[in-house]
Amino acid sequence: MQASSSYISKAGFEFRGSAREFFGIWIVNLLLSILTLGIYSAWAKVRTKKYFHQNTYVAGRNFDYHANGFQILIGRLIIIAGIVVYTLLSTNALVVLVMVLGLIALIPYLLVRSLRFNARMSSWSNIRFTFHGSFGSAVKVYYLYPFLAALSLYTAWPFATRATQRFLANGHGLGTTRFSFDSAIGPFYKALLAALVWGAGSMMILFAFASTSLDIPRALQALEAGSEEAAALVDIGLLYLIVLVAFAPAAIIYHALVRNTVYNNLTLDERHTFHSSVSPLKLLWISVSNFFVVVLTLGLMMPWAHVRRARYLADHTTLYPGGSLDDFVDEETASGNAVGDAYGDLEGFGIEVAV
């Protein structure tokens, strides 16, 4: 779809990359990261982000990523330095306690800086994204609300999820124009219920199967006693596999339904709306099949898995413009939306938060 000054009533997202093309980038990233003992991984991350941004289009215009590897590397070196300092001082219990408390207080700040950095380094149609979330809001959504949800035995978890999505969506903007998200709590409880149904149902089915083929009491006794008996360890491994099969898919289902709720209630400039039609079971199938294909090919199909998932998400995301996008781009360009080119190296921390 080519951009024009005419009104576009519907613009689907597209991912135009290919597994073959990305494989070349991925294998070079992997080899150089190994040869440089991990140093090149900072540039590898930038190349990967740039590839996926530049190959994602909406309304005929693509996204872009503008960070450089040195910014990412500086952030990682600071984190490594912090780990070294912690290791050297960990013999003093009081110092360890102070450092742990300091880290707990620092995490929301780092999250905000990371979100701000990633927004500034991303653009659409040459318009930079922005993030305006505050440290105080981050403390509430990542510490206070999860703590209150835990006190409710996690029956209030959907409220915590909605608060987090409000913080992420409402904090972002495209140039000077802000995104806005709000939703009733019902869809979040439906997402939780769907995840619980999967988790509980699969647990019952798997335990029913396991009870006929595994010696569960012996496995649990071996776990408590620390036995190294081979057969018991196999049973313990299968028990962990049961938990993984139940909870990992439940998390994917929950994420898919939350994503739909967020996009379907998201606006830009209060006139441009979005829609997500991701199927939880289809996304689950893509995730599970990707996992097994990557494992069976010893990781060589990793690029294919990434491209496959990106294309599915793009194909099921739509923008409904509330006016001419050319007018919107012209207004943003005239307002000087491109946030300054000078960014602090400290903003290169690689903390990822999924929206």
From TrEMBL:
Keywords: Membrane, Transmembrane, Transmembrane helix. The chain crosses the membrane at residues 23-44, 65-88, 94-112, 141-160, 188-209, 230-257, 283-302. InterPro entries: DUF898. This is YjgN family protein. It comes from Ruegeria spongiae.
